[in-house]
Amino acid sequence: MSFSSRMPALALAFGLIATGPALAEPCGADSQPSPASHDAASIQFWNGTDFPNDVLWSDFRGGLKSYGSLSPDEGKDQQTYAGHVWYVEVDTPQGRQCVGPVAVSRRGGECQVFIKRAGGRFTMKAQGDCEF
């Protein structure tokens, strides 16, 4: 069974940890850069919103690179490296909203990330080997 098919149940079954509040603007200039790492890991994203989500990796200088879009209720498994920094942009009719950062905390680690709306903002909740 793939992560994508398990994520809705996981999101309901676990008390997930929320990161800081979503910014009411797109991800950009103040993005945290990813550190050099050769420690393979994996991160999974699940879009629990009614809007498209763009998955973004922060390169070694803090520039954001798109790793694809997620439709509502869609998930994505992504190979990465421990410490590499990821963001998600939620594309709403009012504009793009940045959520993150998040990274896998250790070699061989696995981090599951769930994007949802809480009140009037979007939040990133995560479980597993995640750091913020």
CATH hierarchy: architecture: Sandwich
Mean pLDDT: 85
Identify the overall geometry.
globular
Number of helical elements: 1
Q: Extract low-pLDDT stretches.
A: 1-23
Query: Which homologous superfamily in CATH is the superfamily?
Result: von Hippel-Lindau disease tumour suppressor,  beta domain
Share of helical residues: under 10%
Give the strand line-up of the largest sheet: 1-9-8-2-5
- What is the name of the CATH topology? Immunoglobulin-like
Query: How many domains comprise the coordinates?
Result: 1
SS-based class: mainly beta
Order of helix and strand elements from N to C terminus? HEEEEEEEEEE
Number of strands: 10
Q: What is the CATH class name?
A: Mainly Beta
Sheet having the most strands:
5 strands, mixed
Beta-strand percent range? over 45%
Spatial separation of the terminal alpha carbons: 27 Å
Structure characterization notes:
Keywords: Signal. This is von Hippel-Lindau disease tumour suppressor beta domain-containing protein. Residues 1-24 form the signal peptide. Residues 36-87 form the von Hippel-Lindau disease tumour suppressor beta domain. With 132 residues, the chain is mostly beta strands. The chain has one domain (3-131): von Hippel-Lindau disease tumour suppressor,  beta domain (Immunoglobulin-like), CATH 2.60.40. The protein has 1 helix and 10 strands. It has one helix at residues 3-13, and strands at 17-18, 40-47, 53-58, 64-70, 75-81, 85-92, 95-104, 110-118, 121-128, 130-131. It has a 5-stranded mixed beta sheet with strand order 1-9-8-2-5, with helices on one face. The protein has a 5-stranded antiparallel beta sheet with strand order 4-3-6-7-10, with no helix packed on it. Strand 6 (85-92) and strand 7 form a beta hairpin. The longest helix has 11 residues, at 3-13. The protein is globular and about 40 Å long. Mean pLDDT is 85; it is low at 1-23.
